[in-house]
Structures are given as C-alpha cells and as structure tokens.
Design goal:
About 20% of the residues lie in helices and about 20% in strands. By secondary structure, it is α+β, with helices and mostly antiparallel strands. Helix 3 links the parallel strand 6 and strand 7.
Length: about 450
C-alpha cells in the first residue's frame, strides 16, 4: 500500500472546526482545541489487534524538494510553561536541520502575557517586513503552529501534551521534546537514520537527555560518545499515591553498534517515532496536575499496542538542566504548580486513573477511578500488561521493582529480544519471549 502524501505543511491555523472540550481541572470551564487528525484508513479500534504493515505505512506525509527528492516529514511537539528558552529551542530545530523544509513544529505555549512574556513561535516585533523577515522564526512561520494558553489554565504536562498531540497532522515522524533543548547539526538526517536502523516499524527512540554543557562543538556537532538508556526506575510515593518513577539514568557507550539499543521504558523529554505512535497512544485528556506518572502511562500503553522502546545510539539533542552555568536562569523559570491552589484534589483522582489504566494499583477498586474515553486513552490488546511486569521484574502488589534491571538492559536485553522482531518489522513478538527478570 502506498502511504498518503499530504499537502505539507498542514496547519491548524487553516482549520475552522476546532472542538470544545471540558477543562480537566475545572468542570465549569470549556476550552476550544484542535481536533485530532483522522488517518486516511481506519486503524484497529482501541488497539484490539496489531496494525498490519500496510495500515502503518498509510500514515506519513512527505515533501518534494526542488532537488526532486521526496523527504519524509517530521512533526515536533513542544509543551512550554513560561519558558524563556522555548524560542531558542524552535530556532535550533530549524537552523540545525539538514532539510528544515520537512519539519513542522507544534507548540503549546502556556504563558503570562500580562507579565511581558513573549510568545514562543514568533520573534519580538513579529514578522511583517524589515530585518525580522530573515529571522528563522519568520522564515519558517508557515511550519510553526502555536496554541496559546493562559498560565492559570495550565494543569501540568499531560494536558499540555494532550493538546500538542491534537496538533499532529499526519507527518511521517513524530517527535516530543522539552522547551529547553538544543539540537545537533543535521539532527533530522541523523535520527531518521537511527530509527530506520532498527528495522522496526514500531520503534520509539526515547531517553532522558544529556546536559547541553560541554556536549557541542563550535559547529553544532556532538562531542559526546555516550548516551543515556532508560532502566533505572523505582517506586516512590507522594500525596497523590505510590507509583514508579524514573530516576537518573546510566549513561555509557552503547554496546550495540549501528543501531539503537532496546530498553523497557519511555521518557517524556525525548521521543521520536513513526507518526502512528501519537495517533494510537495520545496523551490522556483527563490527567490534570500530574507531573510524575505520565511516562508510565504512555510507555505501558505503548507496550500494549505493540511498540518497542530504544535508546539512541547517539544523541541528537541536549537538555538545559538547572545546573552549572545554567542554574541561575533555569531556577527562575516558573512551574505549573504555582496555581495548584486553583485545582485542589484533582491530582489525586488523576493519579488513581493513571495507575488504574495500567493496572498498577490493584489495591484500589476499579470503581474508584474515572473510566472516561478508555477506548482512546486506555491499553491495547496486542500485549498484556502482566507480560511487561513479569518480563522486567515489577511487583505491582508489593510495590517493588527489581534492582538489577539496568544490568540486564545494558548487557543482555537487546541481544535476546531483537531475535524476536517479526519478519515484517511490526514489532517484537513477546509471545515468543519467556524471559522473566529475577532479582539477584
């Protein structure tokens, strides 16, 4: 089946049929948001079966450049909360792409205009004539969509990224990054080459990013020979409940050469996949005031739809953490919980839903959490959640995660599991995997 070729770039600015939804933190408030993109063919309902390869390949636009070459498109989604570095991130995306014509950025910009904060997607003074026309944000303005939200309506990254997923318009690849990220030169060619090297249509490249300090040379190329891999995760709790949380991740040279390396977990700070990942596994609309828990939600739901997580062989972007020379400025950036007094109690209910959907809180009756729209935001049927828990040493009853998971992931997982990649490249067949991690 030929994949669909859209008139790239499609933009939410050209749509007049946006949808009205209830604000997840305030039932008395409605918001107008973009509608979800509708695939050209109907995909399996609620992940009831694995997509066929033809169904997967039906998704993904391309752009024809003047050189006669057809390039696969990339959608980059950014959720920003009052972040001064957001325009720099967007600028980096376009300036350092080898083929910026194939990139479209969607920004959910949560900001306080009254305090003089500037929008993420446009330069000071706008783009009407003058020197600003040469500004990257102006040059590629038709490839930048911004959804502006008052900061007081912000209820955490889950809802912001839910709106961001609604901005996807059929691009071949979908990427998610934070609003304070710097890209390497020719990042688009690099990351597409890496995901193709997996030979897995269901691959998702994802990790916690390394710090930007000391990671780039003067020409924008990476100086790092190491990369993080997602495996260091343990239970912890707060007033919202007990949940698995990713800790700092080990960073080393990859033992796999010429391809990304398999890992069990998904990270919100960087995710790169085929576009159908955000179509099948969009952010849950009903998770207000959740900061810790979103990664388990997306990662485990993705697993049940048949997706496989990989650590990049090499980094294609870096994060600005509040450390070293960036500490002073980054520590001044506000956070969404500055308005938490407006949404008291909703986070606890949302956490019950997060954990209930992925069956991590068996001690809580199912009747105690919201089941709205689980056909959109629930788990699939390609793989069982219990298969994940048994494979990777997670005890959801006693709230314990095996402490030797990183040893297995760093040294053995890829070799054992990659052998079970389906012949058509539609993900790893876990039915053929009997391995269960046991704590030493």
């Amino acid at each position: 089946m030929e994949r669909r070729i859209n008139n790239f770039p499609l933009s939410i600015r050209n749509e007049n049929d946006h949808e009205e939804i209830q604000h997840p933190g305030n039932p008395n408030l409605s918001m107008t948001v973009p509608k979800f993109w509708v695939p050209p063919i109907t995909l399996p309902y609620a992940g009831e079966r694995l997509m066929t390869r033809d169904e997967a390949l039906s998704i993904g636009s391309t752009v024809l450049k003047d050189d006669g070459v057809e390039y696969e498109t990339v959608f980059v989604m950014i959720a920003s909360y009052r972040d001064y570095q957001c325009p720099e991130t967007v600028r980096s995306i376009f300036e350092r792409a080898k083929h910026p014509e194939r990139v479209r950025v969607g920004v959910v910009d949560q900001m306080d205009e009254a305090s003089g904060e500037l929008p993420c997607g446009a330069p000071v003074g706008g783009c009407r004539g003058g020197e600003n026309e040469q500004n990257v944000l102006c040059k590629y303005r038709n490839q930048i969509d911004t959804y502006e939200m008052e900061d007081e309506l912000a209820v955490g990254p889950c809802f912001a990224r839910h709106v961001g997923n609604r901005m996807y318009r059929g691009e071949y690849y979908a990427m998610q990054v934070d609003a304070h990220v710097t890209f390497v030169q020719d990042w688009d060619v690099d990351v597409i080459g890496q995901i193709k090297a997996t030979k897995n249509e269901m691959a998702v490249l994802t990790t916690y990013l390394s710090d930007v300090q000391g990671s780039l040379d003067v020409n924008g190329y990476s100086t790092r020979k190491t990369r993080p891999i997602m495996c260091n995760t343990q239970y912890e709790g707060n007033q919202q409940g007990i949940f698995l949380r990713h800790n700092s991740q080990p960073e080393a040279r990859s033992i796999v050469k010429g391809s990304p390396q398999m890992e069990p977990y998904w990270a919100a700070g960087f995710s790169f996949s085929r576009g159908h990942f955000v179509v099948n596994v969009p952010y849950d609309q009903y998770l207000p005031m959740i900061f810790l828990g979103e990664e388990m939600s997306i990662g485990l739901r993705g697993f049940t739809y048949g997706y496989d997580m990989y650590a990049n062989e090499k980094s294609i972007c870096f994060h600005s953490y509040a450390i070293g020379e960036n500490a002073r400025k980054r520590n001044k950036v506000k956070h969404f919980w500055e308005h938490s007094n407006m949404y008291k109690g909703v986070g606890k209910k949302a956490m019950n839903r997060v954990l209930g959907v992925v069956k991590m809180n068996p001690e809580v009756p199912e009747s105690a959490w919201d089941h709205t729209d689980l056909d959109k935001y629930g788990v699939g049927k390609v793989r069982e959640l219990q298969k994940f828990y048994k494979t990777f040493g997670i005890d959801v009853v006693n709230k314990h995660a095996a402490t030797n998971l990183c040893e297995f992931v760093q040294n053995e997982m890829h070799g054992l599991f990659s052998e079970h990649l389906r012949d058509d490249g539609m993900g790893v067949n876990y039915d053929n995997i009997s391995f269960e991690l046991k704590e030493k």
